[in-house]
């Protein structure tokens, strides 16, 4: 499947006498991005869009599961296309395994239902050649925003800048939809359901893609400044934190012309300097 959406990754899977592992009917614990209420996922079929309304706030919700084969070279069980949802955990699900000896498929294996994650091996017998197979899964992790191109350690497109703010090198995570956008204008232009925007509370470095708590003036752990530096970096006073050079100051700043027409006393030139 295409590498977009939310990736479902199995941590340290161990497949004994199994060539392929596939999830046929997954179950997830989800939450609404608007009201934060938790709910179980509906019955999901591969590559079928499932829509419903949130039982609490009636927000339109949509989820699509796109399965992927797990084997020795891949730990990805599939991808989720979420609209209005946040995924919290993977619940007991139905899986099918392919025997390494006879290449026959054994379906209906409740791997996560019977297997405590990371503790013991779940054993199953092949229905064709009766070979003993074993499965062990360390944990299940979700990597969000694969479609947004956010890869830790790699820069964002244009280092996070957009056409609206060319000197801002970060993206913002908006809690209203869970998506990342370069600015609030980009959010409004790209939202598809017309939901009301909530101000971002997290940001992503445009140079290394590290996500962190939002800060107006921030320096990422990679050493890069996510906004222009204060103290002369712009053309405005900004309460003393911006430029103080009136030559470089913008004409739109009222402090640029402040004091130019101020009356200067000429008394000293008329009566002489003040005696000490």
Provide the descriptors you would attach to this structure in a database record.
single chain; about 280 residues; mainly beta; 2 domains; five-stranded antiparallel beta sheet; four-stranded antiparallel beta sheet; 16 strands; about 5% helix; elongated
Report the principal-axis shape. elongated
Structural class designation: mainly beta
- Mean pLDDT across every amino acid position: 81
Using DSSP, what is the number of strands?
A: 16
The Rg value, from CA coordinates, equals: 29 Å
Distance between the termini: 89 Å
Helix proportion: under 10%
The helix count comes to 3
Q: What does the largest sheet look like?
A: 5 strands, antiparallel
How many structural domains are formed by the residues?
Answer: 2
- Write the H/E string, N to C: EEEEEEEEEHEEEEEHEEH
In oligomeric terms, what are we looking at?
single chain
Low-confidence stretches are none
Spatial arrangement of strands, main beta sheet = 5-6-7-1-12
Keywords: Metal-binding, Zinc, Zinc-finger
InterPro entries: Znf_CHY (IPR008913), Znf_CHY_sf (IPR037274)
Pfam family, one: zf-CHY
GO molecular function: zinc ion binding
């Amino acid at each position: 499947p295409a590498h977009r959406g939310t990736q479902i990754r199995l941590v340290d899977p161990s497949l004994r006498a199994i060539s392929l592992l596939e999830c046929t009917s997954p179950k997830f614990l989800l939450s609404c991005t608007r009201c934060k209420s938790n709910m179980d996922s509906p019955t999901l079929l591969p590559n079928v869009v499932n829509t419903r309304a949130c039982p609490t706030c009636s927000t339109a919700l949509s989820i699509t599961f796109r399965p992927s084969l797990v084997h020795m070279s891949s730990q990805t069980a599939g991808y989720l296309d979420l609209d209005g949802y946040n995924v919290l955990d993977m619940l007991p699900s139905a899986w099918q395994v392919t025997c390494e000896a006879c290449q026959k498929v054994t379906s209906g294996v409740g791997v996560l239902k019977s297997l405590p994650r990371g503790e013991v091996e779940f054993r199953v017998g092949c229905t064709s050649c009766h070979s003993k197979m074993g499965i062990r899964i360390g944990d299940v992790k979700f990597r969000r925003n694969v479609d947004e191109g956010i890869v830790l350690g790699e820069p964002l497109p244009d280092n996070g800048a957009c056409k609206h703010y060319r000197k801002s090198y970060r993206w913002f995570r908006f809690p209203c939809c869970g998506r990342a956008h370069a600015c609030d204008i980009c959010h409004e232009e790209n939202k598809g359901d017309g939901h009301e925007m909530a101000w971002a509370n997290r940001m992503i470095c445009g140079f290394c893609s590290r996500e962190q708590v939002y800060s107006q003036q921030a320096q990422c752990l990679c050493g890069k400044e996510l906004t222009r530096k204060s103290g002369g970096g712009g053309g405005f006073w900004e309460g003393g934190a911006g430029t103080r050079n009136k030559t470089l100051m913008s004409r739109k700043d009222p402090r640029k012309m402040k004091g130019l027409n101020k009356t200067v006393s000429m008394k000293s030139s008329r009566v002489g300097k003040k005696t000490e």
